[in-house]
Amino acid sequence: MHSVSYQDLRNAFEFVSSGSPATHSAYICQDTANIYWLSSSLELEEAVPADVATSARYIAVPHKNALQLGQKMALQFIDQVLPADYNLVSSFFRKRGAYRRFRELLQAQGLLEQWFVFEASACDSALLDWCEQHNIQISFD
């Protein structure tokens, strides 16, 4: 397999993760390392091979939830920086609007930028682990 640009992969991962699972998808071609993007809610102009979702030649880029980068990651961050608020934040995730309330709490505590750094690092680490598991070669150009 050719090397996949990490920036292209990260962009595809962000696209896939920007909606609920199955709303957006992206596939890496094992033969060319091209990434194909699809959406059930947006009209994309890119031509996509007909067998992209069914052929073993393509690897689906994961959604952040598949890499456990949602609630679990938020709670890990809170456990590190605001352990006294762990139960409060945990309760956020029992209702709709959890991430909005989570970010509002971080904003009020002056921790929003620290969260963004933590989140980016956790995403990069999980995505690189995923690449290793799927024998995807990465280039950092």
How is the secondary structure organized here?
Layout: E1 4-5, H1 6-17, E2 24-29, E3 35-39, E4 58-60, H2 71-81, H3 86-92, H4 98-109, H5 112-133, E5 138-139
Parallel strand pairs: 1-5
Antiparallel strand pairs: 2-3, 2-4
Helix content bin: 40-55%
Domain count, please report it: 2
Number of continuous helical runs: 5
Largest sheet: 3 strands, antiparallel
Record field, number of beta strands: 5
Shape: elongated
Strand order of the largest sheet: 3-2-4
Radius of gyration: 17 Å
* Cα distance spanning the termini: 17 Å
Low-confidence stretches: none
Strand proportion, as a percent range, falls in 5-15%
- Chain-averaged pLDDT: 91
Class of secondary structure makeup: alpha+beta
> H/E series, N to C?
EHEEEHHHHE
Structural description of this entry:
A hairpin with a 5-residue loop joins strand 2 (24-29) and strand 3. The mean pLDDT is 91. A three-stranded antiparallel β-sheet has the order 3-2-4, with helices on one face. 45% of the residues lie in helices and 13% in strands. It has 141 residues and is of the alpha+beta class. The protein folds into two domains: 4-66, no CATH class; 68-121, no CATH class.
